[in-house]
Amino acid sequence: MADSLKTYPEGTPFTGSIGRTASDSEAAWPMPAKARAGAPNVLLVLLDDVGFAQLGCYGSTIRTPNIDRLAAGGLRYRDFHTTAICSPTRACLLTGRNHHSNGVGIIQEMATGFPGYNGMVPRENGFLSEVLRAQGYATFAVGKWHLTLASEYASGANKARWPLSRGFDRFYGFLGGKTSQWAPTLVHDNHYIEPPARPEQGYHLNADLADQAMRYITDLRSFDPDKPFFMYYCLGAGHAPHHVEPQWIARYRGQFDQGWERWRETVYARQLAEGIIPPDTRLSERPPWVKAWDTLGADAQRLFARQMEVYAGFLEQTDHHIGRVLQSLERRGELDNTIVMLASDNGASAEGGENGSFNECQFPNRYEASIAENLQHLDDWGSVKSYPNYAWGWAWAGNTPLRRWKRYLHQGGMSDPFIVHWPRGIAARGEIRSQYIHAVDVMPTLLDAIGIAPPTALQGVAQTPLEGVSFAHTLNTAEAPTRKQVQYYEMIGSRAIWADGWKAVVEQPQGDMLTEAMLQAQQWELYHVARDFSETTDLAREHPEKLQALIDQWWVEAAKYKVLPLDARMQLRMGERKPGGRAPTSRYVYEPFAAPQFEYTAANVKNRSHTISARVVIPETGAQGVLLAHGSWFAGYALFVQDDRLVYVHNYLGLQEYRVQSASTLPRGDVVLQMRFIRTGEHCGRAFLCVDGVRVGEGEIARTVPAVIETSGEGLCCGFDSGLPVSASYTAPFRFTGTIHEVVVELHDGPATPDAHAQLRAAWADH
Q: Of 640, 637, 695, 631, which is closest to residue 663 (Cα–Cα)?
């Protein structure tokens, strides 16, 4: 009987007895830890690239009623900080250790072979999911991950850094830094899947993630009505691409026609009136590289206003789907005893550049669309035909009243919204907290609030001490002082440090190889941020001793947390070979219908001569479909069979589709179909089609993709084309209907000189 079941804690000695037979023995079952009765659920909601001023409850005119409801029923923190960029912030949140201590000093695509930057979170830095699962929690991750080395994205790669290997029972989302909201590259648990519907069927990733989050909770409650859960719910929004249904965009028509300065002034006034920022906060100045709205022409104003309408609609739609998850918890009667924490991973993003971008794949490939070119796509902005980002003027405004934006260490890059909602545990409603906190403080706070001591060991691995500082004491005491004494920052050579209300910061130009002489020549800035929230007055000259003390302290922290060596390189870090990938080769063999290979592990045919050879069987009735494809209609190439012809298409950044087709129909039976590309110059060449060694077609490819093929993580596919098609000639997945034995890609010359500037841009297009 169930009530007579004898148990003992898993991992401890057996407590039954063993005789010679079962009749003179007593059974006992090892049982995992069970959470204490009444333990709260934990829902950690992480937005992406959402600035300090872009939520309604932080002063924005963008409507976010569900997030605002969390704030009204809980707390808003005005002095929450991140690392200023994606992967490092996520590592801090999930481990309670600083980003360099986790080896995640930078985004995963730029990992290097130094302890603070190798992208490999050590086992001694246990994840919150690992700690809570060991305490009897169910653990779910939904949405963006970006804590796996890019060289390990492939289905056949090492999965030690995939979510299920770091304490999560279930995972549904995407591994990389971004993906299409209309046609995402999805992973379910430990394998790639196709989205459950197509864009034309009404699919959107935000809706899918909310559905999956609710489904995981339903599955849990159907089995165990009482087990608490931890859900790490990470939206791709508002990271580019800004994708949303037209009805959401229409709600904002005309609402940004006044431009970024006027919108910023409106938000600033609301922030002051609502007490979101300190009453003596000044509005920081417009940086000179962001043009004044009144100096722009009518076409530019129309374009930029539309870009922000799309972003606003995207963010409101995101809020709507977050609301669906919250409402499902409320219907279950579980919302009041769920600790909901909502944050953004860094400030608003300026990666759209001066004019914004209709196709973000153009930016890393050194093509910047003009205002006139962007205007041609105005009606499609936000649709499946687009992969858009807004102009940097809106990123500046999105961080009102702060300076700079994502990846910079002034406040606009790393001061973010942070909301805590827990009605059963927090008496306050709608209050604002002013204590200085950081992403690294979230895990110790959650453990403190739940009543769990940080473990000394997890799965037999001794644990390092948490480096964050709990702010649980502030949840019910508005005037409680922060217990944090110091917080350092480093991002691509830029450095900052906060201590006792003062902040020193120096911004390092990115891309340079740092030298000691450069370090000595740099001019640090000093701000008394306890009184100057928006960093408007540099006090370096007035308080040189204070500044030097903070600089000296930064170097102490840097040595302590594995920050050194400082590295401001961009393209070279991107290009360094990472562990986990296959050894360099000139011959790649692909089998049909395997999971996609991605840019870091797929055959790199860019700017080099190469051959694609497919050994196939074409039945008597004929065949059609993709032999090999890499990319989407934003950039890429595809070799396929259509209308009984062999076809090669090279899609140059969505601007031009170069097509070569065989002159004759294809034979039946065993046949070798081949495309040979001969490079004739920088990023150009000629394509030749052959059937069983006989040339059947040729054509000029005047411009090839120079640096980056994948925009949304649509990898190299054999026998089909995942996601969105490379060519307008067919509809994905366009599976090959004959038989493919293998497709071989052979590289005939060494890689051409890499485009360093394009690689630098690629680094920022994928985080």
A: 695
Q: What angle do CA 583, 585, 587 make, to 5 degrees?
A: 135
CB 638 within 8 A of CB 648: yes
Active-site annotation, residues: 86, 146
Q: Which CATH number covers residue 543? A: 3.30.1120.10
| Number of CB atoms found within 10 A of residue 601's CB | 22
Read off the pLDDT of residues 560-573 as tens digits, 9 standing for 90 and up. 999 999 998 876 77
Number of domains forming the structure of the chain: 4
In terms of DSSP bridges, do strands 415-421 and 338-344 run parallel, antiparallel, or are they unpaired?
antiparallel
Residue for token pair 């250790």: 97
Burial status of residue 129 (CB atoms within 10 A of its CB: 0-12, 13-18, 19 or more): buried
- Evaluate whether 561 touches 467 at the Cβ level (below 8 Å): yes
Q: What's the rounded Cα separation, in Å, for the pair 358 and 369?
A: 8
pLDDT in tens, 56-84: 999 999 999 999 999 999 999 999 999 99
Alpha helices in 569-690 (DSSP H): 571-575
Secondary structure (3-state) at 303: helix
Cβ atoms of 124 and 464 within 8 Å: the answer is yes
Q: In this model, does residue 189 exceed pLDDT 50?
A: yes
- Which residue is associated with the tokens 């104003």? 301
Residue 308 lies in a domain: yes
Q: Are residues 460 and 508 in the same domain?
A: no
pTM of the model: 0.95
Domain identity same for 426 and 521: no
Strand order in the sheet with 694-701: 587-590, 739-747, 610-618, 669-681, 684-691, 694-701
Q: Where among 506, 538, 569 does a domain terminate?
A: 569
Per the CB < 8 A criterion, the answer to whether 762 and 364 are in contact is: yes
Give backbone dihedrals phi and psi of 276, rounded to 5 degrees, phi first.
Answer: -70, -35
Neighbours of 493 (CB within 10 A): 23
Domain boundary among the residues 445, 474, 503 is at 474
Are 300 and 443 within one domain?
A: yes
Residue 224 lies in a domain: yes
Q: Is residue 523 located within the same domain as residue 646?
A: no
Of 553, 556, 691, 558, which is closest to residue 616 (Cα–Cα)?
691
Alpha carbon 697 to its chain centroid, in Å, reads 42
Give the whole-number percent of the chain exceeding pLDDT 90: 89
How many residues does the structure list for the chain? 767
Considering the domain architecture, whether residues 395 and 464 belong to the same structural domain is answered as yes
Tell me the C-alpha to C-alpha distance, in Å, between residue 1 and each of 5, 185, 226, 264, 537: 7, 47, 21, 67, 73
For residues 588 and 611, is the Cβ–Cβ distance under 8 A? no
Containing 78, the helix (H) or strand (E) segment is strand 75-81
Distance CA 136, CA 39 (A): 10
One domain, residues 747 and 712:
yes
- What residues are paired with 746 via a beta bridge? 587, 611
Residues 461, 383, single domain; the answer is yes
Tell me, yes or no, whether 380 and 495 share the same domain.
Answer: no
Neighbour tally for 550: CB within 10 Å: 23
Domain containing 677 equals 583-765
